[in-house]
Design goal:
The chain contains two helices and 18 strands.
Length: 296
């Protein structure tokens, strides 16, 4: 026997706030929506103007060049920030993210100006995908022959995105805690062919802003359960006044086929608000069971 099921659902919020991010609610949102910035690539040394070994400094505001930086002199425009000079005269300065005394430079992500206003801001966030699958398909298989029985459940989900919050925390290199092995491939002047930004303590440039940098395809196929059993013939049980005796062995979550880089694409969510966000959530476990069913 075989049974096949399909499912799809959407829930829309009709009354709430207006802030759009990876984990906020707002009017018109459907559960699972993921919003964020779009990344272009990592800045390279060729994106900046150098004077010898030092990058030339300028004042910039709202994404635009304001004036050359002169040591000891204040900015000619209120609110302008000291930044590394871009080699492209039409380049957009990411002053919106820059904080403290740190400067955007080679190895930092270059975010896209999606609305075309010449600066990078919250207005450049866009819908990046949904954490709710467009399609869920499950197969239930069962068969029996001369006392043996077999059953299996195969589950799958398709066309949805996952925000890898674990990679956000453990590839961000913004603290003194242990990080993922992938951070060994972080950008350096000797390692420029990478998509992992340079290591910067406490992330003063906003490299960890919610973006498609941490967004991945969540499609998977999983063998949820498989069970093999054998029921002894009644002729062997009559003398023991036993109606039925069945032995079985089963396994759950035996394997998963997925391109998702996290621990589990089908993690248990803490709330619908966090649908699609994999953030320190315990994965489903693999288990094996050996048992017997006895009926008198």
């Amino acid at each position: 026997n075989a049974m096949f099921t399909l499912s799809d659902a959407q829930t829309e919020i009709t009354a709430y706030g207006s802030t759009k991010s990876t984990s906020s609610w707002y009017v018109g949102k459907t559960y699972g929506e993921i919003w964020g910035y779009r990344t272009d690539r990592l800045y390279q040394k060729s994106d900046f103007v150098y004077n010898g070994d030092e990058i030339v400094q300028v004042w910039a505001k709202d994404g635009k060049y304001v004036a050359d930086f002169v040591p000891g002199e204040p900015s000619p425009v209120a609110g302008a920030k000291q930044m590394n000079k871009l080699s492209d005269p039409k380049g957009i300065y990411q002053d919106y993210f820059q904080s403290g005394n740190y400067r955007f430079g080679p190895g930092d992500p270059k975010f896209k100006d999606l609305n075309g206003d010449g600066k990078i801001s919250d207005a450049d966030k866009e819908y990046c995908g949904s954490g709710i699958p467009s399609l869920e398909a499950n197969f239930n298989l069962s068969a029996s022959y001369k006392g043996f029985d077999f059953s299996a459940v195969i589950g799958s989900a398709w066309n949805y995105k996952l925000y890898n919050g674990n990679k956000y925390f453990y590839e961000g290199m913004n603290s003194k805690s242990n990080m993922l092995k992938s951070t060994l491939d972080a950008w350096t002047p000797q390692n420029t062919n990478t998509n992992v930004p340079r290591a910067v303590y406490q992330d003063p440039n906003g490299n960890m802003k919610e973006s498609d940098r941490f967004l991945e395809n969540g499609d998977f196929v999983r063998l949820r359960q498989v069970q093999l059993g054998y029921t002894l013939p009644k002729s062997l049980l009559q003398s023991m006044h036993i109606d039925k005796l069945r032995f079985y062995v089963s396994g759950e979550n035996l394997f998963t086929i997925t391109g998702y880089d996290g621990i589990d694409p089908e993690f248990s969510r803490s709330s619908v608000l966090n649908t699609g966000i994999d953030n320190l959530i315990y994965p489903f476990t693999r288990s094996f069971t050996v048992g017997a069913q006895l009926t008198f």
